[in-house]
Amino acid sequence: MSPVEACKNKDIAFLLDVTGSPDDAPKIQRFLAYLVNDSFVIGPSDVNIAIISFKPEINGHVTLDKGDIFPDVSAAILTVNVHNGTSFESQTYNALDLAKTVFLSPKHVQGGRINASKIAVVLTTGLNDKFCTTVQKALAAKQQGIEVYAIGVGNKTSQLLELKAIVSPPAYTHAFHVEAFDELGELAEDFSKALCSVTNNMTSPEDDGWYRHYQTTCLNVTSSSPQSGVTVIALLWLAAIIGFLCCMKKKSRRVRAEDVQVDKSAEKENG
């Protein structure tokens, strides 16, 4: 089955949280155009598209209430820009939150169809400064039924564990990384196959590593092993029981000592 045949009845929101050179904008545009032209059929009963930028401010290039019209989507792609500057903090957490409440919420006028599958595709150049908040927002979006994909661009997203932390399982078909915007073109075909659930040849890395990273980074937990947690609880219970028994033993000794003292006092009185 081709990607075009597989992608049916999907509402897909591309959430762009990127900074870079203005020259990078055409590279993102070509990536999106490949997906729209070669991987999707845009239409009321097929794929509807939303494209939203989050830097330097929120800009809805096209939203799902208009994302079923191919000319409108194609025109919206050409309005995507990239702003340079290192002062912009990550907005991926905000993008995922608004995807849940607005851009992929059927309750909102811009949120798409009630019976369509909801997909969020995050394109980001960095998560580090808002990693913990981003994971929490991603979890809330996934709990609402949104399938989350992520593409990291550049060295700030080279830590794949952070991308894995926000995507839907399995991570190996949902989290991607490229070193530069130039490589988006090479990724397009594999990404379209993953997005449209077509079997591919990518191998699966360890998926649970991100959770240990999240625990140590955000929850200050040094071990994610359930077995180790049970062991700690068992040891605490054992320590409590031993302490209780020792206390009872000491109390018993005091009682016996008091009884002996009473007996000696009684003997003196009788003597």
TrEMBL record:
Instruction: Check the record and name the SMART domains matching this protein.
Output: VWA (SM00327)
Q: Which residues form a coiled coil?
A: none
Q: Does the keyword Transmembrane apply?
A: yes
SUPFAM superfamilies in the cross-refs = vWA-like (SSF53300)
* Database matches in InterPro entries: ECM_Assembly_Org (IPR050525), VWF_A (IPR002035), vWFA_dom_sf (IPR036465)
TM spans, by residue? 228-247
The UniProt record lists the VWFA domain at 11-191
Keyword terms, alphabetized: Membrane, Transmembrane, Transmembrane helix
Q: Which domain of life is it from?
A: Eukaryota
Please give one Pfam family short name. Answer: VWA
Q: What is this protein called?
A: Cartilage matrix protein
Q: Which organism is it from?
A: Lingula anatina
